[in-house]
Each structure stands twice: as structure tokens, then as C-alpha cells.
Design goal:
By secondary structure, this protein is an alpha+beta fold. The protein has 26 helices and 24 strands.
């Protein structure tokens, strides 16, 4: 019977071969179901035997743990950009110049035969350098600035068509493959359709979507978007005899299972190269990836080295860029669409036109500042092109043909979906309204945003409603049970029979759900405010507000200046002095966490009809709107922790770190993670480490847990 190690190695080999057969050779060796079953077996074995983990296992194709951030590393060889042109004559001139530099036209020259060029589609994706050592995938770096790039290996490992292991006997010890990662066009359409259904902004083109995907810290995002990769060059190569030319390199890479384009053609004359450009222009609309031109390069690596490079670009390669197809049409309407984050995006509707083989009637106008910049009116004759040959984009307004009845496009003064106040950036009071970039609804219960808000509201770190996850929310919202407002959560107990009819909603699950909902009613004002997705009011700001105001009534009846920072203006500071009594006690008053501009936005929301209805409904349903974090001023002023900056370190026997931090903050302290000259107290448990040493060197006061417990007891805690 094979050992676990043997079975893991066997499964990895089988699945790697199946991936290559499916994605590279287009000759599947097993069904999807069989592949998935074997992959599940491998994942289970790897989970049981973490000591046998391999970063290049086929299981990484489905993603893994999110990374904490990007590492920027040096390229072994610079990744230079390519010169480009939109002019066929400039291509002919470049060919002539290249032939002359190589001496191909001199009878006595070393090169006594025509220079061989290669032409292939220019993929509009993201350039990468992928490094293999002894046949193992080591890392993938973006181009970056050409000298250094970001390590995006976590995302690139999910590309099923890219082998993570090569035959070490068939490759040099170091092999850097350079190429383009892309999102297939069908996949791009699927992603944008999903984003549209969810109210998200659409990706402008596959390249932007791809760049955003590989820069996600969570590799499961890349795994879900089915990225592709096509090699188009080489970086560091420990054995230069591996391939003397680019055409032979591509043959070897293809044999190793690394994808290369099948639309490559050789040419030795300018006429042949121009013919290749026209041929690729015709076929590019049938490819499964976006193309924006044709790359022409000298085939021989020796000749490439002879030609060299400028500081920016190699002299042995150039790209011919296809001009985007552009047509005029008439703008007939502008809709104001509200996304799930509340952002309002104007969308143009115009008379249908045929662009790049498809009928086009809509284009995003991005923001209202852009509309003002272009002086765009309903009825204008406009020019539209497809950005990246995919997304329609309005690129010009023909103002000298404006009809007399053309209408000015006015941005909505309130949310088109719910009528609530809007946050505008920059504010409308700014001198130049053409600079406006964002107009956003600040009502967290706006129907255009509510699904995502409900998911956030019920989350563990928010109202912590056990059993009310995404799938349950979606199932309830797909039924006839109302779930369109936060308050609707607290009426679900009246729909128990209907809940039982939902798929996978048994009696026990519903009992747990309703119990979780009931428990959440007592979380208090701070947790509630931080759970509602109110613009500018996250967890920390909500907690800060709950320390200043004892309940929602006190918050909603407070004057605007009480929401602002103490140093915003003299008026607010004077009023605080009168309220509290002396300047010395000012330091004991909590900040709300809001700045001057954000306080105005939050104040406007609090006094809107939408807010009034939301909080009234929650209160009537038994949700506690009093603060669990509020302390009377004298309690704070008398606390030994008031206005102190405190750092916690080491292992504490009698206090959980998170609970202790919350308790200290309720007593007026500011708890931070790092030691500095501004730290007042370090509370050190066992195995305190470097923070203790740094505190000692800075002369910071150090408390042990005994002293902490005594101080808490004196504070009545």
C-alpha cells in the first residue's frame, strides 16, 4: 500500500499532466469530475500532512491564504518597454534601419542573407517575468519600473495553463520566461456582467481587470478569474545555448507546456511584414484575448545582442499599434446609476453604432467633473471608440454641430435611488466644479447598496449575527420574505414558516439564526454605528462616538461642532471650554474620530429622513441605541489612564489583549501597537521581547500585570 507521500506525489503528477493536456495540448485526458475528485483527494492529504507542503502543488490553482503585502524585487535583467508606432511607413523605415545596422545590405558583410523577422499579435495584458530554477517555479514579477517589480507569485500560481514544474533535464538551471498575463475575453464579459448585477463599476478593459486581479492580496480572486498566460520572450538564461533564436525558444517552451502564440509568422521583407500586420488585424477579433497591435522582432538572439538597446527600449523590436475604431453618433440620454458603494456614475445612451463588430448604445461618462470639462449636452454629436477594443468610451464632443435644443446635463442633487444627501468630492463649494471626481449617496440603507450592507452588518466583527451569512441573506432576499432594510432582520422571526421552506434551512438552523438576531439587539450604539456602513464611520470612529454620546438621542441632538476635532476652529474650542470648564480638562474629552469635512457629511446623514426612519425602526424593534462605551466626564478625568498612550506586549495571564485594550480605551487611554517617545505606559506580560527593550531605552514607564490590576481596581474596574 503506497504511503501518503507516495500518493501525494502520484496525484500531483497526474494532475499536472491533466492540466497540460487540457490547457496546452487541447487534448483532455480525464473528465472535469474526475479531475475535481483527484484534486480534492490531494487537498485532503496535504491538509493531513502539512510537512509535505509544496508551493507548486496543483492545489494552489484554486488559491490559498491571502498574503500580507507585496515584496518588490530586482529583475535579473531589466524589463525594457517596446517602441511603438501607428504608421506603416515608420515600420518600413525601422526595417531598413535595422537591416543597415546588421550589415545585411553590404555584399562584404558577415551577414550575407536577409534578416529574419518574426511577427505576432501584441497581447494587451500585463507583462511578467517568471523565474524557474531547476525546473521549479520560483516567482513571478511584474515589469514595475523595468528595474524592479512586485512579486505576484501568489496570483500567478493559480493560472492553470502555466506549468509550475518543468522537466529539470530539459531546461537550464535558471530560466526566466517573459510574457503576458491576461483575462480571456469571455471571462472578462462574465466578470463585468457580475459586477453590473452587483452595482459595481465595470472594468474599462481586460488589461485593467487583469492588473487589478494580480494585485489582489487574496489569490482566490485570481483563481476565480481564470487568467491566461502567453510567453513572448526570455530574461535570465544560465545556458545561452538553450535556444539561439526566438523562434526556437518558442518551440522549446511550447514543448515544455508553456503557452506561446500560434499566430506567429516569419518575414524577411517589409512587404511581408506589412502583410502580416494586415492579416493579424483581420484575425484579432476572433482571438480569446485582447490585442492592440503587432510585435515585430529580429529572430536571432546574436543579432539582437549586436543591435543592443537604448536606455528605454531594445533596438531589435518594435510594435505596430492598431488605431482604435472611432465613429460619430448622437447623445440621446444620460442615466445616473448608483453602485453598491453609493457612488453615482453617469451613463450615456446614444444612437446605435457598429464598433469593432458589435452594436454599441451605451458608454460610461465616469463622473460629473468630466461632463463639465467637455461641456457635454443631451443632443450633442459625439465621437465614440472602444477603449482596448472592448469598452465603449465617449472621446470627443463636436460642439460646433450642437443643436439649438441641446439640454445641459445636471448632476443629481440627491441620490436617484433613495433621495438621500450626497457626499461630493471636491465639495460643490470648490472654485472649479470640473474637478469633481465623486458623487456618493451616504445612506447606508440605499436600496442600490443594501445587499452588501446587510452582509457587513451581520458580520462577526459588526453585529455578529450567527447564521446570517451571505448565502442565507441571498436565499432570503430571493424569496418573498422582506429583507431590504436593517430593520427587516429583526422581523425575520415573524416569517418562520416561510424560512422553513427555503433550501437548507432546517428547524435547528432557524432557531440558531433567530437566537443570534435576538442577541445582537444588545450590542449597543458603538457596534450598531460601526455595522451600518455609514460613510466615514468605521469601527474605530463608531466606538469614539459612543464614548462621547450616551445614546442615539444625544448624538442626533448634538450640535455640529461637537462632532468636529478640537483644533478645527476657535469657536468649537471655546464652546468646549465652557462645557467642560477648564483648558486642562480639554485633554480628557474624547475625539469623535471625524474630521471637519467628514463631520459635515455624517451630520447631514444623521438629520436626513432616511436616517430618522432607520433608527426609529430599529428602536421600535428592540435594538439597544444606548452606548456601552460611554463614561461620565468625571470618571474619565479621575482615571489613571486618562489621556495616556499605552502599549500592550507579552503574555498576560488574566486579561485577553483585545478586551483589555477596549477596557483601557473606555477609561480614557489611547492604545497603540508600537513604542515611541510619545508612549506613556508599556504594560508588559511574559516574554515581552523587543518592545520592552525599546521602552527601557526610551525611558517609558513600565507596568507589570500586578500594577495594572491594582490600577483597574482603583478605577472601579
Amino acid at each position: 500500500m503506497p504511503t501518503a507521500k507516495d500518493r501525494i506525489l502520484q496525484l500531483r503528477t497526474l494532475l499536472q499532466r491533466a492540466n497540460r493536456a487540457y490547457y496546452t495540448d487541447a487534448a483532455p485526458t480525464m473528465s472535469d469530475r474526475e479531475f475535481d475528485e483527484l484534486l480534492a483527494q490531494l487537498a485532503a492529504l496535504e491538509s493531513d500532512h502539512p510537512e509535505l507542503a509544496d508551493p507548486n502543488s496543483p492545489t494552489v490553482r484554486v488559491g490559498g491564504q491571502p498574503i500580507k503585502g507585496f515584496t518588490t524585487l530586482d529583475h535579473a535583467l531589466p524589463m525594457l518597454s517596446i517602441d511603438n508606432t501607428y504608421n506603416e511607413q515608420e515600420i518600413r523605415d525601422w526595417i531598413s534601419k535595422t537591416e543597415k545596422a546588421l550589415g545585411a545590405s553590404d555584399a562584404d558583410a558577415l551577414f550575407n542573407k536577409p534578416v529574419s523577422f518574426l511577427c505576432e499579435p501584441k497581447i494587451d495584458g500585463v507583462a511578467l517575468s517568471i523565474r524557474y530554477e531547476k525546473g521549479n517555479f520560483i516567482r513571478a514579477l511584474t515589469r514595475g519600473d523595468g528595474q524592479r517589480g512586485d512579486d505576484v507569485s501568489h496570483a500567478i500560481r493559480t493560472i492553470r495553463s502555466l506549468p509550475l514544474k518543468l522537466d529539470p533535464a530539459a531546461v537550464p538551471e535558471v530560466l526566466e520566461v517573459r510574457g503576458e498575463v491576461y483575462i480571456p475575453l469571455a471571462e472578462f464579459e462574465r466578470i463585468n456582467k457580475e459586477r453590473e448585477e452587483q452595482g459595481d463599476d465595470l472594468f474599462m478593459n481586460p488589461r485593467n481587470a487583469c492588473a487589478g486581479t494580480i494585485k489582489q492580496l487574496d489569490p482566490s480572486v485570481a483563481a476565480a478569474r481564470n487568467l491566461g498566460f502567453i510567453a513572448h520572450g526570455v530574461g535570465q538564461l544560465s545556458d545561452t545555448s538553450f535556444a539561439p533564436s526566438f523562434s526556437l525558444l518558442c518551440e522549446k517552451l511550447q514543448a515544455l507546456g508553456i503557452p506561446t502564440t500560434e499566430h506567429r509568422s516569419a518575414a524577411t521583407t517589409a512587404d511581408q511584414i506589412v502583410d502580416a500586420i494586415h492579416r493579424i488585424d483581420q484575425l484579432r477579433h476572433d482571438l480569446d484575448y485582447a490585442t492592440d497591435g503587432v510585435v515585430i522582432r529580429v529572430d536571432s538572439f546574436a543579432q539582437q545582442e549586436q543591435l543592443g538597446a537604448t536606455s528605454k527600449s531594445p533596438r531589435w523590436i518594435i510594435a505596430y499599434k492598431f488605431p482604435a475604431e472611432r465613429k460619430p453618433t448622437r447623445l440621446i440620454a444620460v442615466d445616473h446609476q448608483v453602485g453598491k458603494t453609493g457612488k453615482i456614475t453617469p451613463r450615456a445612451t446614444f444612437e446605435p453604432i457598429l464598433l469593432a463588430g458589435t452594436e454599441v448604445t451605451h458608454a460610461t461618462l465616469h463622473n460629473y467633473g468630466m461632463i463639465r470639462q467637455r461641456d457635454l449636452h443631451i443632443g450633442d454629436l459625439v465621437e465614440v471608440e472602444k477603449a482596448g477594443e472592448i469598452i465603449p468610451q465617449l472621446v470627443a464632443v463636436i460642439t460646433d454641430q450642437r443643436p439649438k435644443n441641446a439640454e445641459q446635463i445636471l448632476p443629481p442633487p440627491t441620490c436617484p435611488a433613495c433621495g438621500s444627501p450626497l457626499e461630493i468630492d471636491p465639495p460643490e463649494s470648490a472654485e472649479d466644479p470640473t474637478l469633481e471626481t465623486t458623487r456618493r449617496c451616504i445612506n447606508p440603507e440605499c436600496p442600490a447598496q443594501i445587499r452588501e450592507k446587510l452582509v457587513w452588518f451581520a458580520g462577526r466583527k459588526q453585529m455578529d449575527i450567527d447564521g446570517l451569512g451571505e448565502s442565507t441573506i441571498d436565499a432570503v432576499r430571493a424569496s418573498e420574505i422582506p429583507l431590504n432594510h436593517f430593520a427587516d432582520i429583526y422581523t425575520l422571526h415573524t416569517h418562520k414558516e416561510a424560512l422553513l421552506e427555503l433550501d437548507r434551512m432546517g428547524e435547528k438552523k432557524i432557531e440558531n439564526l433567530l437566537a443570534g438576531i435576538e442577541q445582537s439587539k444588545s450590542r449597543g450604539l458603538g457596534r450598531l454605528l460601526g455595522s451600518m456602513g455609514i460613510r466615514h464611520v468605521g469601527t474605530s470612529t463608531a466606538k469614539a462616538l459612543a464614548k462621547v454620546f450616551p445614546d442615539f438621542d444625544a448624538l442626533v441632538n448634538a450640535e455640529l461642532w461637537r462632532l468636529m476635532p478640537m483644533a478645527v476652529n476657535r469657536t468649537s474650542q471655546k464652546k468646549r471650554e465652557l462645557l467642560i470648564g477648564t483648558k486642562d480638562k480639554l485633554k480628557t474629552e474624547y475625539e469623535t474620530g471625524l474630521g471637519q469635512d467628514t463631520a459635515n457629511v455624517f451630520f447631514a446623514y444623521l438629520h436626513s429622513d432616511a436616517a430618522r426612519e432607520t433608527f426609529d425602526a430599529l428602536s421600535k424593534l428592540g435594538v439597544d441605541l444606548t452606548s456601552k462605551d460611554y463614561r461620565e466626564r468625571h470618571e474619565i478625568a479621575d482615571s489613571p489612564f486618562a489621556s495616556k498612550t499605552i502599549v500592550l506586549t507579552g503574555t498576560l495571564e488574566h486579561h485577553a489583549r483585545a478586551d483589555l485594550a477596549e477596557l483601557l480605551e473606555s477609561l480614557g487611554a489611547k492604545v497603540t501597537n508600537s513604542i515611541s517617545k510619545n508612549t506613556d505606559i508599556l504594560i508588559a506580560g511574559g516574554k515581552a521581547g523587543s518592545k520592552l527593550s525599546k521602552a527601557e531605552s526610551l525611558g517609558v514607564e513600565i507596568w507589570d500585570e500586578v500594577k495594572l490590576t491594582k490600577a483597574l481596581a482603583e478605577s472601579g474596574r
